Recover the amino acids of this structure.
């Protein structure tokens, strides 16, 4: 009625101004009606071309969204219509809100065809800006309303703006937030259909982004592939209050699993549950004291409880400041700090229970996540303060948990590579407070899980992996998520400028693998280097098997009392598999990386040579200790070593008497650790007949000459004589030198006894 009255009033004004107007007779009324009809037709035609009132034929609104659009200002409607028409060619507009003049938000749902073509499986958030020259970064900071956020894929959003700065701001925001921003523009006039224009925009935005290259732990459920079984198992254990530890290789997905668990716990509306996440290798905790870790946990729990109380509209104010004040006052004594820690936890649980009662929820829980937990172990060489703080922290936490009326209200979850700090009943002669922690290993993805990762991310990038490609990928890199992603990135890079979806075959995967083989070797070397740092025995066993074959397990490691334990860990990591009770490397890529280093740059070559030289030094010490202790008392072994080396050797600060005193306290192993390479060469020469030489038979002169030559070359590496080292590399080549060092290391390792059996 409003619109009709407007046109009638306009017609009447026009009629009165007409010099030929007549009185309101029957003829006059007919003329008046005709003028109204003409004005209406003209107005509708104009709006169809330039204004929003023609949207009904062009915009695909959900019934609930159309009234929201009609409630917006006229100018907002006019600037929004071209974008909504463009989107409507492939999406339905499910929700619309005006946020200011010429500013609006929308939620769109892809059609089945567009969802299948681009892998868009959710609904998506749109930010509209109708100002042609004005665009600010704050525009991108708008969040979708809570009423619709659960329906959205938050990793992708649309920006509708013709402003020139929209592209640059959107690209910067996308990079910072590790997401995709699709910028829609309607300035260009194209003869193609709206659907064709939108397909071009989507393929250019979605298919150029490399989803495989994301290196951070996955938190978005839409990018979390596989692992559902283990996540559900761990979640159940946490609910029951069981302390658990997850172990696996670096980048195997532990942090993603912990993050997924954290989300599930905090999204549980049946409980008042909050989490605290600590990283064991962070500078603050690694170099700090146990109470720093405790205070970080208290602060995180307190903040999250306060936010939850505010969200629930509660007047409960969680507060826990006793430990912080004790630290600030520098109150000495582990006992006082442990008491303050306990009182803070009890205070937070009391506040959580008050919230539980107000909201009629079922339970309360404080959950501590500690990733990289092996950096806290007291028995590792770089433990620092944690050599003692490990026991103070975990004994305090365990004592608090046991003192609670409901111990399940406090639970901790660990993540790491090396399980030795959890599986041993005692560490450094003290009872291990983590010994009862349940251990779960996160191995490589199964083939169906690996397939789902390639298929799921590939679909979002216009890559359709066929069964032959999936099979080839698993054969090349197995189920390690990092290697799968690297291979997926290589496939993407080989077809970067694709305009249509492409089918990925085994041939495409093979070509990508060959191009990126060196990079994949480096990734394997990277996580094996970390394994060597936190679980050195396992890494040595793996390397020996890779280089010496399955028989090495029985011949070289046969007398090591912990051999089966190390092998079990490697099997659970997915690096070994057993056939007829003999192990073999489960993935050829790992075996190849261990057997054939691929360094080509001097810095990387020097690093790899340093690693093998350090292994030679360790093997020398073990070899001398085991053979010189054989058939001798510890005191006699010390004297045999000290009397053989010169008293005035360079680069050795300790005198002979100092060495004897050290040996009487710590044994011959400590004496050998204090000697230099020249001393080792002398010991091999003087005690040649006492050494249990094995390997290829050779005369003493030849063997000692080989040792001296290797030691001389190793000196260049150990003392950073880069000029001569580069000259040697130029003359002989990296591979030849590396193989010579490796043979020396392996020859010195070939003994019946191992260090751990001593």
């Amino acid at each position: 009625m409003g619109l009709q009255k407007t046109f009638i009033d306009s017609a009447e004004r026009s009629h009165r101004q007409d010099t030929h107007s007549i009185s309101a007779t029957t003829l006059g009324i007919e003329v008046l009606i005709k003028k109204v009809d003409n004005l209406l037709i003209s107005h509708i035609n104009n709006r169809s071309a330039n204004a929003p009132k023609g949207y009904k034929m062009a915009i695909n609104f959900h019934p609930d969204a159309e009234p929201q659009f009609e409630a917006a200002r006229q100018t907002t409607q006019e600037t929004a219509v071209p974008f909504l028409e463009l989107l409507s060619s492939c999406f339905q507009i499910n929700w619309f809100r005006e946020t200011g003049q010429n500013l609006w938000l929308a939620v769109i749902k892809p059609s089945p065809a567009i969802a299948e073509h681009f892998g868009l499986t959710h609904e998506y958030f749109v930010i509209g800006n109708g100002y042609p020259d004005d665009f600010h970064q704050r525009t991108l900071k708008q969040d979708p309303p809570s009423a619709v956020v659960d329906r959205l894929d938050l990793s992708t959003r649309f920006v509708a703006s013709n402003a020139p700065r929209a592209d640059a701001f959107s690209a910067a925001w996308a990079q910072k937030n590790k997401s995709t921003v699709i910028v829609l523009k309607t300035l260009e006039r194209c003869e193609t259909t709206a659907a064709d224009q939108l397909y071009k925009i989507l393929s250019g935005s979605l298919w150029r982004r490399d989803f495989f290259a994301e290196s951070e732990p996955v938190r978005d459920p839409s990018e979390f592939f596989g692992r559902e079984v283990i996540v559900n198992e761990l979640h159940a254990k946490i609910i029951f209050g069981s302390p658990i530890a997850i172990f696996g290789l670096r980048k195997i997905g532990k942090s993603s699993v912990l993050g997924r668990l954290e989300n599930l716990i905090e999204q549980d509306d049946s409980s008042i549950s909050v989490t605290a996440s600590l990283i064991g290798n962070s500078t603050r905790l690694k170099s700090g004291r146990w109470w720093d870790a405790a205070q970080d946990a208290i602060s995180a729990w307190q903040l999250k409880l306060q936010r939850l109380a505010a969200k629930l509209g509660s007047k409960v104010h969680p507060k826990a400041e006793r430990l912080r004040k004790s630290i600030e006052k520098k109150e000495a004594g582990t006992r006082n700090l442990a008491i303050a820690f306990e009182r803070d936890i009890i205070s937070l649980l009391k506040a959580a229970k008050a919230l539980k009662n107000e909201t009629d929820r079922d339970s309360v829980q404080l959950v501590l996540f500690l990733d990289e937990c092996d950096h806290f172990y007291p028995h590792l060489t770089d433990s620092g303060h944690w050599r003692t703080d490990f026991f103070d922290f975990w004994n305090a936490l365990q004592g608090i948990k046991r003192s609670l009326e409901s111990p399940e209200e406090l639970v901790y979850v660990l993540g790491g590579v090396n399980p030795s700090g959890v599986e041993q009943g005692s560490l450094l002669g003290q009872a291990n407070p983590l010994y009862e922690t349940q251990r779960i290993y996160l191995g490589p993805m199964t083939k169906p899980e690996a397939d789902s990762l390639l298929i799921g991310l590939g679909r979002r990038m216009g890559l359709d992996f066929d069964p032959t490609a999936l099979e080839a990928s698993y054969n090349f890199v197995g189920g390690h998520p990092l290697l799968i992603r690297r291979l997926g990135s290589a496939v993407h890079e080989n077809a970067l400028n694709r305009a249509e979806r492409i089918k990925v075959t085994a041939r495409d995967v093979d070509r990508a693998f060959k191009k990126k083989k060196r990079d994949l070797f480096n990734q394997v070397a990277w996580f094996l280097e970390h394994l060597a740092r936190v679980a050195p025995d396992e890494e040595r066993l793996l390397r020996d098997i890779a280089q010496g074959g399955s028989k090495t397990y029985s011949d070289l490691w046969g007398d090591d009392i912990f051999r089966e334990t190390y092998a079990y860990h490697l099997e659970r990591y997915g690096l070994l598999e057993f056939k007829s009770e003999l192990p073999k490397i489960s993935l050829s890529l790992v075996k190849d990386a261990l057997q054939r280093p691929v360094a080509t740059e001097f810095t990387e070559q020097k690093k790899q040579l340093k690693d093998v030289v350090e292994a030679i030094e360790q093997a020398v010490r073990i070899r001398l200790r085991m053979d010189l202790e054989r058939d001798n008392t510890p005191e006699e072994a010390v004297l045999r070593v000290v009397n053989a080396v010169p008293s005035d050797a360079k680069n050795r600060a300790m005198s002979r008497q100092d060495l004897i005193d050290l040996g009487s306290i710590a044994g011959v192993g400590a004496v050998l650790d204090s000697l230099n390479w020249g001393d080792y060469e002398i010991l091999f020469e003087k005690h040649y007949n006492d050494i249990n030489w094995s390997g290829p038979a050779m005369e003493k002169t030849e063997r000692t000459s080989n040792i001296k030559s290797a030691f001389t070359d190793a000196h260049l590496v150990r003392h950073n004589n880069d000029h001569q080292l580069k000259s040697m590399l130029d003359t002989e080549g990296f591979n030849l030198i590396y193989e010579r060092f490796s043979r020396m290391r392996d020859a010195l390792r070939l003994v019946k006894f191992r260090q751990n059996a001593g």
